[in-house]
Amino acid sequence: MIKLMIDGKTLSVPDGTTVLDAARRFHINIPTLCHHPKLTPFGGCRLCLVEIKGIPRPVTSCTTPAAEGMEVTTTSPNLESLRKTVLELILSDHPNDCMICERAGDCTLQELAYFYGIRKNRFSGERRTYSKRDGNPFIERDMEKCILCGRCVKVCDEVEGVAAIDFAYRGFKSKICPPYEKDLNCEFCGQCVAVCPTGALTGKAWKQRGRQKDVREVDTTCAYCGCGCSLTLHVQGNEVIRVTSREDTLNEGWLCVKGRFGYNFINSPERLKKPLIRKDGKLEEASWETALDYVAGRLKDVRDKYGPNAIAGLSSARCTNEENYLFQKFIRGVIGTNNVDHCARY
Amino acid sequence: MAQSDETKKKVVVRVCIGTGGLAAGGKEVIEAFKKAISDFCVDIELDFTCHYQKVGCRGFCARDVLVDVVDGDTSVTYQGIKPDIAKRIVQEHLINGQPVKEWLIDDSYYSFHSKQMKVLLKDCGTIDPEDIQAYSKVGGYTGIRKILSTMTPEDVIAEIKASGIRGRGGAGFPTGVKWEACRKAQGDVKYIVCNADEGDPGAFMDRSIIEGNPHSVIEGMMIAAYAIGAGLGYVYIRAEYPAAVERLKLAIAQAHETGHLGKGLFGSDFSFDLRIKLGAGAFVCGEETALIASIEGERGMPRAKPPFPVHRGLWGRPTVINNVETLSNIPYIIRNGASWYSSIGTDKSKGTKVFALTGKIRNTGLIEVPMGIRLGEIIYDIGGGIIGDKKFKAVQLGGPSGGCIPDHLLDTPVTYEDIVRTGAIVGSGGMVVLDETDCMVNIAKFFLEFTQAESCGKCVPCRIGTKRLLEILDRITRGLGKEGDIELLEALCSDIKVASLCGLGQTAPNPVLSTLKYFRHEYEAHIKDKKCPAKACKDLLIYSILEDICKGCGVCKRACPAGAISGDKKKPHKINADLCIRCGACFDVCKFNSVNRE
Amino acid sequence: MLEEKDMNDVLDRIIAKYREDEGNVIFLLQETQDALGYIPEEAVAYFSKKLDIPSSRFYGVLTFYSQFHLKPRGKNILSVCCGTACHVKGGTKIAERIQRDLGLASDGETTEDGKFTFEIVRCVGACSIAPVVLVNNKAHAEMSADSASKLVTELKKKETGVGAK
Questions:
Q1: Tell me, which fold does domain C76-160 have in CATH?
Q2: ipTM of the modeled complex
Q3: In a mutagenesis test of the C interface, which of A162, A180, A192 is the best target, namely the one with the most C β-carbons within 10 Å?
Q4: Between chains, do B294 and C26 touch, taking CB under 8 Å as contact?
Q5: Quick one: CA dihedral B506, B508, B511, B516, positive or negative?
Q6: CATH number at residue B77
Q7: Smallest Cα distance from A153 to chain C, Å
Q8: pLDDT digits 0-9 by tens, B243-296
Q9: Paired residues of B111 in beta bridges
Q10: Domain end residue (candidates: B413, B435, B457)
Q11: Considering its fold, how many domains does chain A have in total?
Q12: Is A187 part of any domain?
């Protein structure tokens, strides 16, 4: 354990903790934009600058390891003025779009601008403009709102192992893009959307469906596979308009394309809600009892007539492990055959 | 009876093939000498054999091509030699023994050298850089031999610390302290890296040293490697220096062949090998963490410090990164001893420093001076003052990280501390002299254009801050400056300096701050009066023809690319201000000074 | 333009060299540019597939360093140095003139006939002989807008056989 002092409070933290993490553990707030607790530190936004006794210039707390006896100051008129300048600079290269932005009310940059009271910006000048719209089906990439924090690049590389995007060019012309600035062509897991602190990355399906302040959040479990990721459905009225996941869950907030973007079946008119039994070539709605009795009866008939090996069971990856266990138990123990398989077995 | 070639006396023709020498036709001059000699051989029997020696930069590039004719103990130096002069020198000097007077070096050559102190550059301009033996003959590789047989790594570090040498790349960090930190760092694999990514515009010291004496850098790296415990070194060199890269490759190959690189060197158990990594065109890679990223094959984006490279450097291993000039000094320190080195210079700034002296100065070139020399001595005694009848305005030191030092501070001694006090830095050694026709706002803008284009884009203050600085400077030079712009510049500069991630951003505002400090009135004139006092900012100039002087010769009319000048022959011409693009072509061509610019 | 197979042979040789060394994306790209004059998108796709390195990384590195070119360049490359020493001695005027003479709109462009590429470079370390123009890497010392213009005319003559312009 390391003992250090932050803003006059003596704290002790495990070896290897950064100054930022140490501060946050004890609810000392240091503003950040590029930092994400699950990604390697970047040190680019410069908002988390702190003063450390004995070091001549402010350092980024997200990259500086806490050390024994360190004396850290997280706020001072000088630091706050630096942070304000940094925010003004970011905003001078950012569209003044909050009125129509998907992320308004749920945007870290907007939040910081609010706290620092930036109404009039001392700086103005050329802004990056992008005429091209990314044609991919899931992720809206409004790169004029990108603040180049690099969180999307890191999550794609470090968490997904895909590296579909990276920094390109340099200086003021820097951008984050897929190779050769083509349309995004990846797994569309949307992790980049989840970590984006601004409105640069959003779901295409979210567009003008409602802002965060109006939604009701409903926690549930993803039904797509046995992983059982926790989902948070963002519900407006009685309609799911967005899906996210909380960081303090089993899946640590990470999702895949299905869990994150595959929710429009919920209100689909074609959605199957009751069992259907085909009668004379026509599907007819039936009750669960009728349907189950029918299936059981047919299985019994086949087994009696042709023997258990005439039946095979194929299960789904959308079931849980427990369900799959029960299924193979049923096929083996009840039907009496080893003909059992699963769609994700390969 | 003909003498055999072996018994004939040897005459050496030594020709500069540094970048200046090459551009002035160094190679052609050698060929011309060869041709002249062989032409004369047809008719007469020569009583000497002629040998050609190519040498690296000799410093006085303004007088290139420099040629030495060495005949026994006497050496005669010629300046400004073109290929067609070679024949005369061969005939009159080599054959008839009479040096050709009109091409001999003159007083400026002596005054150029009078206040210099050549340690590194001494060998640079006299030995053949493409021959390892030439370096050995002047004491090369005795330093590494000495330490391998008589000194422990700790002894070497103590010696380097005692010498007081500080990093020549810009920041002036004590080299021995850096080595010691790396020596003490945990790790079985360590690296020594030579930073030859000399990116400062207006600087060519490192290029000249590698081109002129590559083995001194190799030996310096070997000594450093022994001291810190490294077995492998990298030279990270700009691809923009093809000649230097070739020389270095050749030097490394020769060192391998002759057992100066490899396993178990000089009968010890010390092994060392060297690799070259070519830069790919990014100024920021001169910053050490960006350089590391670049050697690792990444985008050259700097990383946060701490951890410092001496603890976690290349591939996470302890790494020392030293600049070319620093490393090149090391063999001389080991050979001659720390006390010899520390006797040169001042209390806190030891040794000599190489500068690239350029700009509006008579004697441009590469110079080496003892630390502590005054700026004025460099500019007037060595440099010979300003070209033409113009007035000195400032000297720019330290490139995009440095600043401009005005006339009244020319007494400042060249030491790390004194130069920093003026607002500039010693830097890697670019020294660009500016005269009264240089607009200081424009100079600041020039450097910001540079840093802004070279910013890696990782951190906000540098990526957006330098862009905004440039935009403000640009509007000032275009006459669109506003009240409050100077204050805004100052505020932004001070925040960029503190908040930026790496040295590039932290020093990028220096050119603005130093020009604001000494030439604030020029900024004010641009903003308030919409005038450029140096008459350099195009948009603020108005050209007109003085009718009482104009002879109506029509030269300006023909020179005008915009068709803005009209007038009948032999009658005063006129400039149409709406069409004028303010290029100054008319001003330059008028023989009667009848074009007025204000 | 090379046939695909020929290009792949070249790239395979570069990959073999790369594997001997410690594996450096920049090295791969430098070798490719030396061999092909620029870095075709197909080469990046090939490397990415063969070496299992995401193309996004290649693209990031390619666009970061100014030495790499994504498009073929002209037969003759005219680089005007605009480092400090060249700048104060009129480098910008020279650049403007050459650009005008070649009819190119901006830095880094190539003439339509593919004969000339014009670029501005930031210090080639030849400051003592400023201002400098490099023609295919050979330095021309102490240039002026007029002498640079003459140089362009000569080069054009050489390329087309007639006194262009």
A1: Glutaredoxin (3.40.30)
A2: 0.90
A3: A180
A4: yes
A5: negative
A6: 3.40.30.10
A7: 10
A8: 899 999 999 999 999 999 999 999 999 999 999 999 999 999 999 999 999 999
A9: none
A10: B435
A11: 3
A12: no
